[in-house]
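Example protein as discussed:

>
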Amino acid sequence: MEAQGVLDGLRSRVLLPRRAGRAPRAFGWALPTAVLCGYGFFASLRPSEPFLTPYLLGPDKNLTETQVFNEIYPVWTYSYLVLLFPVFLATDYLRYKPVILLQGLSLIVTWFMLLYAEGLLAIQFLEFFYGLVTATEIAYYSYIYSVVDLTLYQKVTSYCRSATLVGFTVGSVSGQILVSVFAWPLFNLNVISLTAVSVAFAMAWFLPMPQKSLFFHHRQSSTQEERVDIVKVIKELWQDFLRCYSSRPLLCWSVWWALSTCGYFQVINYAQGLWEKVLPSQTSPIYNGGVEAVSTLLGAVAVFVVGHIKTSWATWGEIALAMFSLCIAAAVYIMDSVHNIWVCYASYIVFRIVYMLLITIATFQIATNLSVERYALVFGVNTFIALALQTLLTLIVVDAKGLGLDIFTQFMIYAGYFAAIAVVFFISGTCSIIRKSWKKERRNEATTDGA
């Protein structure tokens, strides 16, 4: 059910408005930013999430491993993919706040069902609602840009992203402490999660309603409502799509984004299942919450550090993607083949850190090739392609209607998947360097001949 990978630390850049007008004087920027940060903190404060798989397999739900891994978890992937594009359009058309409220309500339904729903079909419906939760995250990360001035984007982005990271970390750590120190049952952790998301939903009602958005509402609303032509909007999106992906550097980084995010989603969604097979929670203490917290914090440090690294990504970017993708493949392989829980935990932490570092670099490189108003389109398309690939991978490898492979075989395939990405980008990067070297030699020869 974990879906953060999309974008860990990056989705805060996803939707920026086409025209960055001044914030409405009625409430300025402090109120909506504070309320949105409060919402993000409590919506992410879910101490039970790192322990979802043990909870479903345990006495509370008494589901089998095949049901959880091959019949329930795939529903999240399918629903997220189906809902992403219509939610993207609805977010802009409805101007963010209603979709944030929908996300809050979906969180409540999800955790209420985790507490009281019984049986395979009910838990599958639960996964659908969680797919709605993740699809509507775009509203949270885009709302603030419609109510603040352009000069405040960097500040409010850091505030909002920090709020969700702190909320997730506090939730993971508190869940681990309650389980390990106070021996709380996992049912009680879900009660805390339900309470937290309910507080988030209540706070969302205090968000001011934006008056403009990216595509449908370019200007502040007047007494006469704007007439919206959805066909025109879609045509505009298509033209922007063609212009954006005609750039080879942007296409290269976007391909890596989509391919790697697909694999990242698969690993984080099923990592708890692997840990459960290596060390069953019914017979041994587990530290899922602590591992998630550590990987998030160290990943945030890596993201901060990479922002200060000076290198020629235009020349060496593809080779770097290949080398780091190989590191990811090695981490997943070790996680799968060395059946020691501490090795699994350490490999998972390395996996998340490297991915968060690389996706940050990819975001920076894509942003340098885009105008502000096209951020939403490119990042949205990349995520959609990643989900489409993940859906195909899930259908073939995980789903009971496909191969329905066991968890260890699945992770061996994911390791091979990242290794294949590394090979592709190593070949592409090497060819690119050779081409640039030839062009440089030709220029030097032409200069020499001209002299």
Notes: Confidence is low (pLDDT under 50) at residues 1-26, 220-226. The CA atoms of residues 169 and 293 lie 5 Å apart.
